[in-house]
Amino acid sequence: MRKTRVLVVDDSVVVRKIVTDILSSDPQIEVAGIAANGEIALQKIP
C-alpha cells in the first residue's frame, strides 16, 4: 500500500516539529516536507 504524503505547514517551529514527529511515527505516512507558511508551501509543491 502506498504511503500518504503530507506537507506540514505552520508558522511555529515547535508545532512543525511536534506534528512532524507524530506523523513520522506512522508507517502509513511520509512527511514530504515542511514549510513556515502557505507561500513557501506552494513553492514546494511540484
Structure description:
- This protein has 46 residues and is an alpha+beta fold.
- It has one domain: Rossmann fold, CATH 3.40.50.
- 41% of the residues lie in helices and 28% in strands.
- The protein has helices at residues 13-24, 38-44, and strands at residues 4-9, 29-35.
- A two-stranded parallel ribbon has the order 1-2.
- The N and C termini lie far apart (23 Å).
- The mean pLDDT is 97.
Care to give the gist of this entry?
This protein has 46 residues and is an alpha+beta fold. It has helices at residues 13-24, 38-44, and strands spanning 4-9, 29-35.
Count of individual beta strands: 2
- CATH class identity: Alpha Beta
The largest sheet has its strands arranged as 1-2
The end-to-end distance, rounded to whole angstroms, is 23 Å
Query: What fraction of residues sit in β-strands?
Result: 25-35%
Percent in helix = 40-55%
Number of helix segments? 2
Calculate Rg over CA atoms: 11 Å
How many distinct domains? 1
- CATH homologous superfamily title: Response regulator
User: Structural class, from helix and strand content?
Assistant: alpha+beta
Characterize the biggest β-sheet.
2 strands, parallel
Q: Might you state the CATH topology name?
A: Rossmann fold
